[in-house]
Write a structure and sequence with these properties.
The strands form two sheets. The protein has a twelve-stranded mixed beta sheet with strand order 8-1-10-19-18-17-16-15-14-11-12-13, with helices on both faces. The protein is of the alpha/beta class and 525 residues long. The protein folds into two domains: 234 residues, YjeF N-terminal domain (Rossmann fold), CATH 3.40.50; 264 residues, 3-Layer(aba) Sandwich (UDP-N-acetylmuramoyl-L-alanine:D-glutamate ligase). It is built from 20 helices and 19 strands.
Length: 525
């Protein structure tokens, strides 16, 4: 797993490294500039012209150091400073003095009228060193003019490449929010650790390809600053992302001497007269994730479709009279994990089934879709959520749970998840282009797999089935980690489907097929 920091956490790490460990800020700055210079060299073509655009803060100081290194190496580079070049931070003034002592020239733009009155089309590479991770308010005035000019040049000149230093200027490194306007980089070279605002959208779409560069901060500093309240006032959840290598650690091994009961039994309570496909997708995904048996409790109208399309399944069908609750309780006793909600509807029968499932305090329960909608409309049931349960809302469902707006949740998903977790138990899987997962412990996971083709009907039903299948195989394992594994695999399966079909044409069924391809790569004997 890879640790991700808030921008303000990284600033605290920098401060501790400089003021307590004793590594001078100029040393860190020189290493940072080396990383950006290497990124420039990787995309440089003979004859390219390079423009380095600097603010007057520490990000601008990094930019001046990059400009100096490019000049030393003989590149055709120019530098422009935006703002009062005689002001700015101490580090900026040091780097400006070094530039002057080296005899290198730079130009200044201190008014909107001046802004960036050069033909950016004459350049092949622009290095953005205007704000970095330190921005705390909207980019305005000449700064906004400069950022917009850079973006316009990128649109007009397709071959123009933009490299941002630490973060695209105008992007909030804590949330990914665009602060008025933001540089749309091709590459962002960030230092130490990835920042939340470069991983979450919309910031991720502005950052382009993210390169994480080690500037020499001792690894122990991260622990001292982030976990010790005597050192840092910024104590919050630990934030991580998965990598492909992590999946194998949390997948249940396949055992040569085994049978269908070895790999868990999943009870899927899903589907209704109107939504038969949800039960099929959830059941199929649970099987494809490696579990041994799946039983579906669903409306009688789904019998002919399900028994033909998934003949491996076990079924309990109910009619207009509703489910037999004695049978339902027996099915719950049979299962190692329960999934409830996909396409279930919000009838009185559905509510009674959810109430029965919520009585189960020992076995893992995944609550999705209409199961979550029923919780929102019967809020007293939220207090029945226990740490063995996983909720998988999308943004609209989350807005109902929290009685707020989608836009408020989107503006800071990590804060929304943290606020929910302060009131309720269980693991929360908040689904979006970057799904955020938070369990009973203090970790938060941000999922980075997947693609826009997964924004299609039934994709959430597939995820619910994957979670049920994975968790059933090891029901006593850490549910948050299993949930993160399932979300990441779901994204990888979507990526595999997109490889084969493209993001326009893929459907939820293709994600199920992609899951089989992905898991084949992780088989352990």
């Amino acid at each position: 797993m890879e640790r991700i920091l808030l921008g303000r956490q990284m600033k605290e790490v920098d401060n501790y490294t400089i003021n307590t460990i004793g590594i001078p800020s100029m040393v860190l700055m020189e290493r940072a500039a080396l990383g950006v210079t290497e990124a420039v060299e990787e995309i440089y073509k003979s004859g390219d012209r390079i423009l380095v655009v600097c603010g007057t803060g520490n990000n601008g100081a990094d930019g001046l150091a990059v400009y100096r290194m490019l000049m030393i190496k003989g590149y055709r580079a120019e530098c422009v400073i935006i703002g009062d070049s005689h002001g700015g931070t101490e580090e900026f003034q040091r780097q400006r003095k070094i530039i002057k002592n080296c005899g290198y020239k730079y130009s200044r733009r201190e008014t909107i009228e001046e802004s960036l009155d050069v033909d950016l089309g004459n350049y092949n590479i622009i290095v953005d060193g205007i704000f970095g991770i330190g921005l705390s308010r909207n980019a305005e005035g000449m700064y906004a003019e400069v950022i917009d000019s850079i973006n316009s040049a990128k649109i007009e000149e397709k071959n123009l490449k933009i490299i941002s230093i630490d973060a695209p200027s105008g992007i909030d490194a804590d949330t990914g929010k665009v602060m008025g306007t933001g540089v749309k980089a091709d590459i962002t070279v960030t230092f130490g650790k990835a920042k939340v605002g470069l991983v979450m959208y919309p910031g991720a779409s502005y950052a382009g390809k993210l390169k994480i560069y080690d500037i020499g901060i001792p690894w122990a500093v991260y622990g001292m600053v982030l976990f010790d309240s005597r050192v840092s006032k910024y104590i919050c959840e630990e934030i991580y992302s998965f990598e492909k290598s992590d999946v194998a650690e949390y997948l249940s091994p396949r055992i040569p001497y085994s049978h269908k009961g070895t790999y868990g039994k999943v009870l899927v309570i899903a589907g209704s007269k109107e939504y038969s496909g949800a039960a099929y997708l959830c059941e199929s995904a649970a099987y494809k994730s490696g579990c041994g048996l799946v039983k579906v409790v669903t409306s009688r109208e789904n019998k002919s479709m399900l028994t033909v399309m998934v003949p491996e399944g076990l079924y309990e069908f109910y009619g207009d009279e509703g489910v037999n609750h004695d049978k339902l309780k027996a099915d719950i006793d049979w299962a190692d994990a329960i999934v409830i909600g996909p396409g279930l509807g919000q009838s009185f029968n559905a509510l009674n089934m959810l109430k029965t499932v919520l009585e189960e305090k020992e076995k893992p329960v995944i609550i999705d879709a209409d199961g979550i909608n029923l919780l929102s409309s019967n809020r007293e049931l939220l207090n029945e959520i226990d740490d063995n349960m996983v909720l998988t809302p999308h943004l609209r469902e989350m807005s109902r749970l929290m009685e707020t707006t989608v836009s408020e949740i989107k503006s800071d998903m990590l804060e929304a998840v943290s606020r929910y977790k302060r009131s309720y138990k269980g693991t929360l899987v908040l689904k979006d282009a970057r799904t955020v997962i938070a369990g009973p412990k203090k970790e938060i996971f941000i999922n980075t797999s997947g693609n826009s083709g997964m924004a299609t009907g039934g994709s959430g039903d597939v995820l619910a089935g994957i979670l049920g299948g994975l968790i059933a195989q090891e029901p006593n394992f850490d549910i948050a980690l299993k949930s993160m594994t399932g979300v990441y695999l779901h994204g990888l399966a979507g990526d595999k489907a997109a490889e084969q079909l493209g993001e326009y044409a893929m459907t939820a069924s293709n994600i199920v097929d992609g899951l089989a391809e992905v898991l084949k790569e992780y088989e352990r004997y």
